[in-house]
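pasting for ref
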Amino acid sequence: MLRFWNNPEFVRHRRAELRPARAITVAAVVVLMCVLLGIACWSFEQAQLDRGQRAEQGFARDTWLLLYYWLMGLQGVALTFWTLSSCAQSVSGERDRKTWEFQRTTGLTAAELLVGKLMGEPILVYFAVACAAPITLIAGRAGFRWAPWFQFSCSSR
């Protein structure tokens, strides 16, 4: 089992941030955003098809690939900046709530406190990325399945 899973600081953040109602809301918003992004990618590819800039044969592949690239980029940006922001605000938030002195006097070592903060503070963004990951994998699989260079490289098996 993962060692940080039972870290008291991580457990505190996990319980506070991932309450059932909040987790369901975040999952619903992430799925809705993925669907809206998929519609936007389809609309973009359809507009290019209508203008004659694309051939109809690669419409589905291009739409899936565009969705995949957007989802990967957005997840990377969200993961990077949301994690940096939440971890940077962690200590100042503890001081505002007047709980910083309690953390300094706990029996946790500095390493345990650090791991608990790094894994616990941004747990909501980890959950959001985990909710979007299946959609991203489906889009990537669908897009690369139709890619001619991917079929050529896999045909030798």
